[in-house]
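Build the 3D complex.
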Amino acid sequence: MKLFTTAVLLSLATLSAQAAPRTVDTARSDISFSVKQMGVAVDGRFKRFEAQVSFDAAKPETSSAALSVDIASIDAGSDEADSTAAERAWLDKAGFPKATFKSSSVRATGPGKYEAKGLLTIKGKPREITVPFRAADQASGATLLSGQFSIRRTDFGVGGGEWNEGDLVSNDVPVKFKLLLAPAK
Amino acid sequence: MSQSLPQRYGAVAQAGHWLTLLLVIGAFALGWIMSDMKMSPTRLKLFSYHKWIGVTIFGIAVLRLLWRQWAKAPPLPPTMPAWERIGAHLSHWGLYALLFAIPLSGWLMSSAKGFQTVYLGMFPIPDLVGRDRELGKLLQDVHELLTTILLFVVGLHATAALKHHFFNRDDVLTRMLPRWRKTGDAS
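Done.
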């Protein structure tokens, strides 16, 4: 019985150590990126993604995020750019339909400023990344998390072979995101 | 008339004319090749070169029109019948209009398709229209249609010049050619 009580208490403690999950309003959230070719920035975004986010500004270390982005939902502005991005050399929609991010730790870096470390997986290749972000309380009680970071596409084998010759397509790809969290219950 | 009009096109006007021809041939060839290519780094390069040439053609057309205010075009031969004069003026102004309209439609089409035009890879030209797939397709059709019209008008223009040279035996063609062409005449 003692053991059971301890177990319950422990699990309660673990639960309370986790910030409450917040519903992500994906319709008003955004994940976008920009790829530069021949000096021309071509912007794109993913229209569909799932996000499980718990966030507590008072106890940021209890926050966590897990995102799964539907590669097929890419919108790079034109049918040609979309289909090119979905090809094997690029994001390989057929082989790897999802790109994911899972946070391992979150910490505050200043007033309203935070930093999440975690694993970003694109084309099945996981890489540790650091994502700085801001949190802003909205009048509605919602919270807007926004930030940007840069990845090197070749770290994930995105755009191989002839695409890496010369400096035609930039290796650095800035990624921006906005996640609107519904008011905490 | 106190001041007679020149009988020939000057060096600047000639340079503008022939440079435009070379650039139009280049842009047309690139456009033709790249539109049927599969996406590749080479294709992206051709797209950029095509756009840079288009911007250059547009810029030269502006300069040529400005220059024309300063250095008047030589008059058409007095023997030309009225319908030929009208035809000549219409095709000349039509050519200018197309040299403006085709790069403009290409620029707008690029913006609508989400590929901004960055001249020489260094100077971004602002997007006048936002990203819009339907508009992009429409402007592509417009760009291609105008280019087809240009092809016809250029053909007409060149045929008329050759007809003047070989049939009417006037100076309509030679006055747009450097003078070395005529050194044998000792005139």
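The mean pLDDT of chain A is 91.
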